[in-house]
Design goal:
Layout (H helix, E strand, L loop, with lengths): L2 H7 L13 H12 L10 E6 L2 H8 L9 E8 L14 H18 L3 E5 L4 H7 L6 E10 L11 H4 L3 H4 L6
Antiparallel strand pairs: 1-2, 2-4, 3-4
Length: 172
């Protein structure tokens, strides 16, 4: 499948079957994160792959993962983050987002569904997973086999602003 087809096929899955994600598929998803670019190649991200019922229940105290059998907590490591020298902006959130996007698209290519979750209680995740102060949970990626009708790959023409509103060009 070509990239744009994968990107159009991906949608936010909010209902999953109980079927576990196979280890080889999880490894490919994690490999997609591993090859993702980060600012200055600092790689200031730590992933927590959660599959056991006990650990999924811990996440459930902080967020709704819609019954997914796999969740990956994407954490920013503030001790490793690159900072833009002009205003000291840390790029952790950007780096975490790039890794998350790579994993979502890889999951789609493997026939899995996913949803990017930012609506969660960070203090609960910090406590439940005993995260050190330098690690901040940025988002959660729920992954599994969808138990719902897939969204149409053609939906973007109606659900997105036109490209003409998205992009402006320089006028030389």
């Amino acid at each position: 499948m070509d990239f744009i087809s994968i990107a159009k096929k991906r949608y936010s899955v909010r209902k999953y079957t109980e079927k576990k994600v196979e280890p080889e598929k999880l490894e490919k998803i994690l490999e997609a994160a591993h090859v993702a670019p980060t600012a200055a190649n600092r790689q200031p991200i730590h992933l927590i792959a959660v599959q056991s019922e006990e650990a999924l229940a811990k996440i459930g105290k902080a967020a709704d993962i819609y019954g997914a059998p796999l969740a990956i907590i994407i954490c920013a490591d503030h001790n490793k983050a690159w900072k833009r020298p002009y205003d000291k902006k840390q790029t952790c959130d950007i780096d975490a987002s790039i890794l998350t996007d790579h994993m979502m698209l890889q999951a789609t290519d493997l026939g899995l569904g996913s949803v990017w979750i930012c609506y969660f209680q960070p203090d609960v995740l910090k406590s439940e997973f005993d995260l050190p102060d330098n690690l901040e949970a940025v988002n959660i990626l729920a992954i599994g086999y969808a138990n719902e009708e897939p969204a149409s790959p053609d939906r973007h023409a109606e659900m997105r602003i036109p490209v003409s509103q998205l992009v402006s060009y320089d006028t030389l």
